[in-house]
Design a protein that fits this description.
By secondary structure, this protein is an alpha/beta fold. The protein has two domains: 35 residues; 334 residues, Alpha-Beta Barrel (TIM Barrel), CATH 3.20.20. The chain is built from 13 helices and 14 strands. The strands form three sheets. The chain has a ten-stranded mixed sheet. A two-stranded antiparallel sheet has the order 1-2. The protein is globular, with a radius of gyration of 24 Å. 42% of the residues are buried. Bound molecules: iron/sulfur cluster. Iron/sulfur cluster binds next to loops.
Amino acid sequence: MVLLSLVAEVLALRCFVGIVLATCAYVVYKSTAIKPAVILTPVSLTEEPSTKEPAVETSVVHEPLDPSKPPNAPVSVNYFPSRECNYKCKFCFHTETSSYILSDEKAREGLRLLRDAGMRKLNIAGGEPFLHPKLLSSLIRYCKEDLSVESISIVSNGSKITEKWMRENSQWLDILAISCGSFDAQTNVKIGRGDDGKNVARLFQIVEWCRTFNVKFKLNTVVNIHNWNEDMVANIEKLAPFRWKVFQCLIVAGENDDETRKRDARKFLVTDEQWRTFCDRHKHLSCYVPEDNNSMASSYLLLDEYMRFMDKGEGMMTTSASILDVGVEKAMQQIVWDKKSFVERGGIYDWGRADMRPTKSTSCGTSLNLKELEF
Ligand code: SF4
């Protein structure tokens, strides 16, 4: 009897342990199956090139909107609707080689395809996007209202932005990035960035509008032979961008690599030492996000005026077929997109508007998103 009850107890205990283990296994399975992976990537860098020392930036891969999207979904796309520009930066690596521009309707069709494929952030660049203000308004409104794209940004040289446009359209804009070559008028002229001497005054005006209309302000600077020794600290502190992308002047084959192209950037390149000098002078600024040439190659998803992906990595620039003709997935297979580099350079960051979620002030500008910084 004693023996029988002992056997029964052992069996009951085994059964209990089995149930506990099975329950644990189920809970673990559910938690990993339902929640998409959240990858925390503390990186030392940025969104256009870098050295390893400067600002440490926390990069977060958000939970995908739709876990059924493939891992290579085009999370963040840089779209260049037009190559036209009113400036003539001598190192420009997206030159005015064509005046083609898609109709509003076709551009919307392509943006919908991208959203359906997993695009969460759209950056509109150029050329100068504000040369086509109506198209710009239409596209950003469509992306926010109809496609619910998480973040919309525009990169502009700042020369054509008006208060009226900001007032009427800022509700659909998360980030406005302005490119700034120098705080010295003569240096801007040497670079090819306008010659009316008013770039800096315009820049400060745009910052005011961003504050008024609650758009996050970002700054981009290309370090080149004319500005590598400039001390920009005081002005950057005053402008207080939430993010200051600093790029190393870059040669892109087919765009600016020799005298047969629209631009020849060879004389504008900086040495590694000059690049480091610029980085060392500014790296203490918390908004500073440097990106050297190595970080740039193939880590951006670039879409040209025909909605073809461009591969500006190693060798001659190549393009895919248009997503309007072959779809997003097939077009992406025709170019190299280094998603790992994209994540490591901080391609996914605090890209939502400041007024969307609770925020906290930082030392270099507007505000950062608490939820995302917790990761
Ligand atoms: S403002 Fe931008 S697009 Fe225009 S020329 Fe300069 S670098 Fe090129």
